[in-house]
């Protein structure tokens, strides 16, 4: 199958519209973030016009900007490395390295460039206007099954590109899946990604989405990404909060529940993605083999 994004607008037309960018209002962040915006603007005013603050991490902030060079809109992540310990600093630099290795693909967040300025890291990337999947699930009712299929195939296409480059993402979850202005689901955040032949100890990913073999054998394979896709799609379909431990966490790894009110095809596929044995999970090529049977076209 040709690696291309699936048709979009017919899939989304019956879904609730995205709310009007609540994350872009000043009131969402308060005075502290206004100071942060002013500091960022002072650092980058020669290259960009700062439009708004759109997200925060422990030691980073993300801004929507307009480039004075080409007039286009971008997202810039500003990481203040002076606050990071050695491990977090290595992760930030590793994220930059992996971003530079990934070949452009319609279902991967586009990387433009990065630079270090006075010990702080700035990363310029494509702006996904409609936020991430976590926000989308919060602001929308139960998703139509075609949207679930759209999510599944878009992310599998992204992972196919990565696996073709011998890269394991290792942190697939709603927080790291972004939605473009044209409603493409796009995979981003490569801080835990690594090449398949990586032999050093790997950092443990988010325990809610991590495959069982990673916990028991410290083993990360392409099949580990498939499991994380399964948990993500299960969450989007069932609208449940995925726990970091407890009965549901164990059930997803031992005897995955059936999807309620979904087609048999979707239910069977998602349960196969969650198989406890990584060798029994389908590859990206098998998943993508014949999407017509899932009534996507």
UniProtKB/TrEMBL annotation:
It comes from the Eukaryota. One of its GO terms (biological process) is negative regulation of G2/MI transition of meiotic cell cycle. Pfam families: Pkinase (PF00069). GO terms for molecular function: ATP binding; protein serine/threonine kinase activity. ATP binds at residue 77. InterPro entries: CC_SR_Kinase, Kinase-like_dom_sf, Prot_kinase_dom, Protein_kinase_ATP_BS, Ser/Thr_kinase_AS. Keywords: ATP-binding, Kinase, Nucleotide-binding, Serine/threonine-protein kinase, Transferase. One of its GO terms (cellular component) is nucleus. Residues 48-297 form the Protein kinase domain. Belongs to the protein kinase superfamily. Ser/Thr protein kinase family. GCN2 subfamily. This is Putative WEE protein kinase.
């Amino acid at each position: 199958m040709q690696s291309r994004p699936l048709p979009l607008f017919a899939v989304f037309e019956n879904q609730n519209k995205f709310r009007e960018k609540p994350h872009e209002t000043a009131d969402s962040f308060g005075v502290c973030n206004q100071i942060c915006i002013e500091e960022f603007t002072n650092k980058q005013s020669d290259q960009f016009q700062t439009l708004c603050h759109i997200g925060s991490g422990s030691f980073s902030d993300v801004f929507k900007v307009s480039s004075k060079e080409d007039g286009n809109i971008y997202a810039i992540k500003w990481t203040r490395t002076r606050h990071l310990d050695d491990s977090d600093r290595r992760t930030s630099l590793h994220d930059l390295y992996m971003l530079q290795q990934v070949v452009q693909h319609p279902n991967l967040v586009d990387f433009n460039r990065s630079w270090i300025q006075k010990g702080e890291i700035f990363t310029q990337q494509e702006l996904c206007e409609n936020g991430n999947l976590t926000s989308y699930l919060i602001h929308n009712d139960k998703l139509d099954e075609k949207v679930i299929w759209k999510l599944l195939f878009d992310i599998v296409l992204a992972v196919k590109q990565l696996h073709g480059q011998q890269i394991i993402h290792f942190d697939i979850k709603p927080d790291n899946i972004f939605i473009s202005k044209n409603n493409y689901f796009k995979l981003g955040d490569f801080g835990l990604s690594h090449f398949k032949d990586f032999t050093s100890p790997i950092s443990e990913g988010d325990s809610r989405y991590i495959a069982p073999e990673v916990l028991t054998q410290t083993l990360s394979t392409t099949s580990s990404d498939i499991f994380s896709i399964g948990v993500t799609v299960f969450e989007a379909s069932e609208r449940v909060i995925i726990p970091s431990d407890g009965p549901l966490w164990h059930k997803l790894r031992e005897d995955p529940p059936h999807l309620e009110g979904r087609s048999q095809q979707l239910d069977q596929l998602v349960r196969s993605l969650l198989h406890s044995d990584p060798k029994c999970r389908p590859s990206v090529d098998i998943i993508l083999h014949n999407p017509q049977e899932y009534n996507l076209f």
